[in-house]
Design goal:
By secondary structure, this protein is of the alpha/beta class. The protein is 27% helix and 18% strand. The longest helix has 17 residues. It is globular, with a radius of gyration of 27 Å. The chain binds 1-deoxynojirimycin (NOJ).
Length: 747
């Protein structure tokens, strides 16, 4: 169900009547988003707001200051238009939920929606009415620090969870207290920054843009997202902030978006740095013409739009269109009716409820990569002692992750704290930091760590990356565990004490040679405020792990980009093909190792595939069925399978549906996620899980850039990861009337 805001005549009339009363200077003021002054109203901001030179403010979260700013805007400025108050409420506000990549690992739209709603409630109490979230960039390069902010590598998963986040932030009625206008960002292609270096160039063929990068944004527009932010990056030679094809043709004309488009921070003057324009004036012109409505932080609109209008280079009609987009958003938010922020109007949510939600979200986000040693879950009754080792075991700040401007580390519960509470006095907890930080190369703490592990029944290692190693502008060229952590793992494992590794990080790490050293490994992302209780719940079996990877985990950095929905190539590698590079005979003939699309030293497979995640029980998948075996649009096919919990306790599983379009007019991915469902299964119980696909689910953009589903055979899999083996097939038949080209236009 979508809640797309409708451009009602009443809203349009209101926008028009406000617009008609504005001078050109006041109109331009509405197009300026200024940075706040951090807990007070600076003289310059006071004047700017009073004189109608600013229409929106970001980074102001003190309710008194926000109210004063709104008062000035409404009472002292001639036009009396309230302000948008923006903030990066990315994965929580004071209460921090898992980073978006972690939330994506829950594969649970309802939960993602609940986290966004809770964050919106907390943030609205301060007067913030606009969040710069969700990030809908596709994250296929884990070197890129902002992969932490994405909803993973897959358009279907990111689209579904992005929609859920928007529902959570905006609700059904954006004008109700406690709601935030959401912002789909960064439009578009930002995730494909070359070499995973932030802000870098992107070169994305249109067909790839349309089939991979744009779909989550299109879903966001359909879900009624109020605003869109441009990307910093250069897309195929035209930076996104001046890309009229993206901002007009696609966003407005094809998708019908009527909210506001904001630039990213200073991305307008940076058009000159890209080399697209000569200076600020031309940058303002390029951005305004291309379709940016509101300028964040920089002042090229304020400085140049008026004279550009006078010279006739920007039409007044364009200015009116920009202002209308801003005003429409303000009207939808109900700002004209709600001038003051009154925290008592915001629906109350008890702290305990919020913390419980943070704990559930963290629990569902954590992925059990393996438990080859069979050491989990731990049973406190049969343990004498446990060693808790690592710099992330007891760090209330670092477990929160990137973008936590307002996060309160004082609320954090750490793993050490939660384990102590859970095991009580009966179990000795031996602590050692091992290394000062995850980046440190100082091994002087190893002895203490080894000592702690040696004397314990089990060792728990809390390693990974502090939050500073991911997020905006925090990219890494080598995504192995930083510092001497690999050596620390080896040293602890050599004690022979059963060891479980918990990794907290803002990106998938290259873990070859690491996870094999330990009995069990959990990937926890940055789990947020309730990291500790969530991890203790899982480690000690109070809950079963149920997270699934929203990104592929490579063996080594050089495999990047590696993702499940790749195309086949003409020479696909045989699964499992890997050459022992040392064993290659000197002067071997060129063909001796095979001519296929794999790395000699890493093969073709990742270390853990997209969708992977184990539980303390096993799930058996059987009896896949398709009904009917062939269908014709507008019909659909039902794909179902039995999922049995073969274990002895209740557990949740994320059932995944993948398809392959065997022959296409353009080559299609070897597997594409087309559906997923989180189900709870009792021990011994079998559930029949059923998905329905119609032609629009099978559609893609072809060579002519039009979306179509092509008749033909499809393979379909149901299972617990992108490696699912239970397969069937169906046929999409041509529509009876036919399209003339044997294809079905859709969506
Ligand atoms: C720059 C970031 O790219 C964007 O995501 C963020 O919303 C703005 N700064 C505002 O902080």
């Amino acid at each position: 169900m979508t809640h797309a805001p409708v451009a009602t005549p009443a809203i349009e009339q209101r926008v028009r009547s406000i617009l008609d009363g504005l001078s050109l200077a006041e109109k331009i003021g509405q197009l300026c988003l200024a940075n706040g002054s951090g807990g007070h109203v600076s003289e310059s901001l006071r004047h700017a707001v009073a004189e109608g030179r600013v229409g929106a403010v970001l980074n102001e979260v003190d309710p008194g200051t926000v109210n004063e700013l709104q008062r000035i805007a409404v009472e002292e400025s001639r036009a009396g238009i309230p302000l948008l108050i923006g903030r990066d409420v990315i994965h929580g506000f004071r209460t921090v939920f898992p980073i978006p990549l972690g939330q994506a690992a829950t594969w649970n739209p309802e939960l993602v929606e609940a986290c966004a709603r809770a964050a919106a409630l907390e943030a609205s109490e301060t007067g913030v009415n606009w969040t710069f979230a969700p990030v809908l960039d596709i994250g296929r390069d884990p070197r890129w620090g902002r992969v932490a902010e994405t909803l993973g590598e897959d358009p279907c998963l990111a689209g579904a969870l992005g929609r859920a986040a928007i529902r959570g932030f905006q609700g059904e009625d954006l004008s109700r207290p406690g709601r935030l206008a959401a912002c789909a960002k960064h439009f578009a292609g930002y995730g494909a920054s070359e070499a995973g270096r932030d802000y870098n160039t992107t070169s994305i063929p249109e067909i790839e843009l349309r089939n991979v990068h744009l779909p989550p944004f299109e879903e966001a527009i359909r879900a009624g997202v109020a605003t869109v932010m441009t990307s910093f990056s250069d897309l195929n030679g035209v930076p996104a902030t001046a890309n009229d094809w993206l901002l007009r043709t696609v966003l407005r004309e094809e998708w019908g978006f009527d909210g506001l488009v904001v630039s990213d921070w200073s991305s307008i003057p940076e058009l000159a740095v890209h080399g697209l324009t000569e200076g600020d004036r031309e940058s303002a012109l390029a951005a305004a013409r291309a379709g940016v409505d509101l300028e964040m932080a920089s002042t090229t609109f304020a400085d140049h739009l008026a004279s550009l209008v006078e010279e006739g280079r920007v039409s007044e009609a364009r200015i009116d269109e920009m202002v209308a987009n801003v005003l429409r958003t303000k009207v939808r938010l109900g700002l004209f009716e709600r001038r003051r922020t009154d925290p008592t109007e915001v629906p109350a949510q008890e702290t305990a409820v919020r913390l419980d939600l943070a704990r559930t979200a963290a629990r569902q986000s954590i992925v059990l990569l393996h438990d080859r040693g069979g050491i989990l879950p731990l049973h406190p009754e049969s343990l004498g002692s446990v060693a808790v080792i690592g710099p992330l075991a007891d760090d209330p700040y670092e477990q929160l992750g990137t973008w936590i401007f307002d996060g309160d580390p004082g609320q954090s519960r750490t793993p050490l704290d939660a384990i102590r509470e859970l095991v009580g006095d009966a179990v000795e907890v031996r602590c050692a930091r091992g290394v000062a930080t995850t980046r440190s190369r100082d091994v002087s703490g190893f002895d203490e760590a080894v000592e702690a592990a040696r004397g314990a029944d089990v060792a728990l290692l809390f390693l990974g990356e502090e939050s500073i190693l991911s997020g905006e502008a925090h990219c890494r060229a080598d995504i192995r565990l930083p510092g001497v952590q690999e050596e620390l793992i080896a040293a602890v494992a050599e004690t022979g004490t059963p060891t479980a590794l918990v990794l907290m990080a803002g990106r998938p790490l290259a873990l070859q040679g690491v996870v094999e050293r330990v009995g069990a490994a959990l990937f926890a992302w940055h789990p947020g405020t309730m990291a500790g209780p969530a991890l203790a719940d899982l480690l000690f079996g109070r809950a079963c792990p149920s997270g699934k990877l929203p990104v592929t985990i490579p063996k080594v950095t050089g495999q990047i980009p590696i993702y499940h929905a790749h195309r086949n190539t003409g020479r696909p590698a045989t699964p499992g093909a890997i050459v022992d590079i040392e064993a290659i005979e000197p002067r071997s003939p060129q063909t001796s190792v095979g001519n296929a699309a794999f790395h000699l030293d890493a093969g073709i497979e990742p270390l853990f595939p997209f969708g992977h995640g184990l539980s303390y029980v096993s799930f058996a998948y059987r009896n896949i069925a398709v009904e009917p075996a062939g269908f014709r649009p507008p019909g659909s096919v039902a794909v179902s399978a039995d999922v049995t919990n073969t274990g002895s306790r209740e557990a949740e599983e994320v059932v995944q549906l993948y398809v392959r379009d065997l022959v296409g007019s353009v080559t299609r991915p070897v597997r594409e996620l087309k559906g997923f469902r989180r189900v709870r299964v009792a021990p011994g119980e079998t559930l029949r899980v059923r998905f329905e696909l119609d032609a629009s689910d099978l559609a893609f953009h072809g060579r002519d850039m039009r979306r179509r589903a092509e008749p033909g055979r499809f393979h379909v899999w149901i299972g617990g990861s992108s490696d699912a083996q239970l397969r069937s097939e169906f046929e999409l038949l041509p529509p009876v009337s036919g399209s003339g080209q044997g294809t079905t236009e859709s969506g």
